[in-house]
């Protein structure tokens, strides 16, 4: 469903993988797009150019979501820039990290701090700033704030499976995201803001290489009921639907996009 003009979505971690796919799917559905990135500005700019080729306005904006001050600054930059063209009406919390396979007793404090700083705290920081701009409690005459919106949190089926012997820390961080989704959805239910989530399963993206297992998605194909890994596009389609007005009666929902691999 095409969105009304002059609305934009911010996608954290939007320069590659699921985030980049979300940017393109949203653009095709009529959204303007803000592409957040941490380090790879060239990749983010490439996504921006692809969005622009689809006829939508787009910008790239740098911020490490684990840095609270950087997230606040990012939203202020968007208010002054993209906010002149469009109203913030969507947020896809996609930024996240995984680490190398490791048992819990061997996990360092540094690893745990990084995992939760990005996957959990970063989601809170970005969502807080979005809610300040979307919630009808914040409406003011002559302001673009308080017009409602939607938040989509990218979780993982690891939140249900636990990640034993590989990344229990990652699974736990995504479990926190699921709980955050349920709670915030109820908190904002009367304020014009819907909050939902998507739990991807084994998806063929670059995140596996960052965890030291570049071929993991293909290697695990036989363990997935549908016998193949998913694609970033398939996850993005679910996220864009939850963001859209077609999902207007959905809040507090988390959709599995896992090829049937979601419960043991």
Which key features would you list for this structure?
264 residues; alpha/beta; globular
Brief digest:
By secondary structure, this protein is of the alpha/beta class. Helix content is 41%, strand content 16%.
What does this structure look like?
By secondary structure, the chain is α/β, with parallel strands linked by helices. It has one domain: Rossmann fold (3-Layer(aba) Sandwich). The protein contains 9 helices and 7 strands; from the N terminus they run βαβαβαβαβααβαααβ. The chain has helices spanning 17-28, 41-53, 68-80, 109-134, 158-161, 168-187, 207-210, 216-219, 232-243; strands spanning 7-11, 32-37, 58-62, 87-93, 149-154, 193-200, 254-257. It has a 7-stranded parallel sheet with strand order 3-2-1-4-5-6-7, with helices on both faces. α4 links the parallel β4 and β5 (149-154). α1 packs parallel to α2 (41-53). The longest helix has 26 residues, at 109-134. It is globular and about 55 Å long. The two termini are 35 Å apart. The mean pLDDT is 91.
């Amino acid at each position: 469903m095409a969105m009304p003009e002059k609305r934009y979505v911010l996608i954290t971690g939007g320069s590659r993988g699921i985030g980049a796919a979300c940017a393109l799917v949203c653009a095709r559905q009529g959204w303007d797009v803000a592409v957040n990135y941490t380090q790879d500005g060239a990749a983010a700019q490439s996504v921006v150019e692809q969005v622009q080729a689809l006829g939508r306005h787009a910008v790239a904006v740098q911020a490490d979501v684990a840095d609270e001050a950087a997230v606040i600054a990012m939203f202020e930059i968007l208010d002054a820039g993209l906010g002149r063209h469009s109203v913030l009406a969507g947020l896809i919390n996609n930024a996240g990290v995984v680490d190398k396979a490791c048992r819990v007793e061997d996990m360092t404090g540094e690893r745990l701090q990084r995992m939760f700083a990005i996957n959990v705290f970063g989601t809170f920081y970005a969502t807080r700033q979005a809610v300040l701009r979307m919630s009808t409690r914040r409406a003011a005459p002559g302001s673009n704030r308080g017009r409602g919106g939607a938040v989509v949190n990218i979780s993982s089926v690891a939140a249900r499976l636990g990640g034993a012997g590989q990344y229990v820390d990652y699974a736990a961080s995504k479990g926190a995201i699921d709980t955050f989704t349920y709670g915030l959805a109820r908190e904002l239910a009367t304020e014009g803001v819907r909050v939902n989530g998507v739990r991807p399963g084994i998806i063929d993206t670059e995140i596996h290489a960052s965890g030291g297992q570049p071929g993991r998605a293909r290697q695990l194909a036989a363990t997935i009921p549908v016998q193949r890994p998913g694609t970033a596009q398939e996850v993005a389609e679910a996220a864009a639907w939850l963001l859209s007005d077609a999902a207007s009666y959905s809040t507090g929902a988390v959709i599995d996009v896992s090829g049937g691999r979601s419960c043991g």
